[in-house]
TrEMBL record:
Annotated binding of GTP, by residue: 163-170, 244-248, 308-311
Keyword GTP-binding: yes
EC number: 3.6.5.4
Catalytic activity: GTP + H2O = GDP + phosphate + H(+)
Lineage summary: Bacteria, Pseudomonadati, Pseudomonadota, Betaproteobacteria, Burkholderiales
Compositional bias segments (type: Low complexity): 22-45
UniProt membrane topology term: Peripheral membrane protein
Protein name in UniProt: Signal recognition particle receptor FtsY
Keywords: Cell membrane, Cytoplasm, GTP-binding, Hydrolase, Membrane, Nucleotide-binding, Receptor
């Protein structure tokens, strides 16, 4: 069993954090590891579980929720191929459906051009064949976004979490902490969102649920909170640090500069950190999500994305726009509020949910 206290703690930094009660939980069978969190040789590797009916039921449940979340886009796309003729009208309707799904102009044109070539080269004559060809092309487009989150590369592994207000950033941090516990990873959270009311309290609640230490301040500089967290994690031999940050709109340049400062200060606390810079995106925001990816990537050099709220009115096509325009890896996607509603992004599963 891994312990927070392998090493004797070093003296605390000058700024005294408010720390929630710390404990280390041992994952239970219910805490099944996420396939997108892949430890390398430096991290403890859990035993491979035997296939079981509950695991199969869990996968079916996840696919059902994902398909339900993407049902709006799915129905618009799949109905096009029911009794359709392979002609210009079909391509025009497909173009409109992709644009309505927030796939964007570039990705839509790319898919249409590739589909027309495939239909011609392979002499496809049936609507079902064209649909299968679209499935293949869309999977190929999204597969480069599918990348595992590797653990154990650094001690600690420092993750900076960014996103606009309302994207589900703090909730996502809590869910990620649960996933990390499934890999025997001790976690420390930094409440760097010192601007939003109750943000610190919300993160502390997630910390208590997961038996995770939370470092925060009543008020003050978010960069100082992040710096404290990195030093505390090093002193406690914690595996992973996740730094929450205040929500920012890409147009608020002075506030984006504050995020850059937080990143610089984290680097002073540990050379090379943060090792992961994740952007949490609300899947309902459509093309605004692509604008957020561009702005935050330009400012922070993103290493990964988490797409939340892919349910209800979410259109899902924005992943195609991201893949074509700014292909930052998508580590996780979420379809609800529960812990199990955040799962690794799998391109084939995602496309099947869209086109089945």
């Amino acid at each position: 069993m891994f312990s927070f206290f392998k090493k004797k703690p070093k003296p605390e930094p000058e700024i005294t954090p408010v720390i929630a009660p710390a404990a280390v939980s041992t994952p239970t069978p219910a805490d099944a590891p996420s396939a997108a969190v892949v430890p390398n040789v430096a991290a403890p590797v859990p035993a491979t579980p035997e296939p079981s009916q509950p695991a199969a039921d869990s996968k079916r449940s996840w696919m059902a929720r994902l398909k339900a979340g993407l049902s709006k886009t799915s129905s618009n796309l799949t109905l096009l191929f029911v009794g359709a003729k392979i002609d210009d009208d079909l391509y025009e309707e497909l173009e409109a459906a992709l644009l309505m799904a927030d796939a964007g102009v570039d990705a839509t044109q790319f898919l249409l051009d590739a589909l027309k070539r495939k239909v011609k080269d392979e002499k496809l004559t049936e609507a079902a064949q064209v649909k299968a060809a679209l499935r293949t092309l869309l999977t190929e487009l999204l597969t480069p976004l599918q990348k595992p989150l590797e653990l154990g590369r650094h001690q600690p592994l420092v993750m900076m979490i960014a996103g606009v207000n309302g994207a589900g950033k703090t909730t996502t941090i809590g869910k990620l902490a649960k996933h990390l516990h499934a890999y025997d990873q001790s976690v420390l959270l930094a409440a760097g969102d010192t601007f939003r009311a109750a943000a610190r309290e919300q993160l502390t609640i997630w910390g208590e649920r997961n038996n995770v230490t939370v470092i925060s301040q009543e008020s003050g500089d978010p960069a100082a909170v992040a710096f404290d967290a990195v030093h505390s994690a090093k002193a406690r031999s914690v595996n992973v640090v996740m730094v929450d940050t205040a929500g920012r709109l890409p147009t608020q340049l002075h506030l984006m500069d504050e995020l850059k400062k937080v990143k610089r200060v984290i680097g002073k606390g540990m050379h090379g950190a943060p090792h992961e810079v994740l952007l949490v995106i609300d899947g309902n925001t459509g093309q605004n999500a692509l604008a957020q990816v561009k702005a935050f990537d330009d400012a922070l050099q993103l290493t990964g994305l988490v797409i939340t709220k892919l349910d209800g009115t979410a259109k899902g096509g924005v992943l195609a726009a991201i893949a074509k325009t700014r292909p930052v890896p998508v580590y996780f996607i979420g379809v609800g509020e529960k812990i199990e509603d955040l799962q690794p992004f799998n391109a084939e599963e995602f496309v099947n949910a869209l086109l089945d």
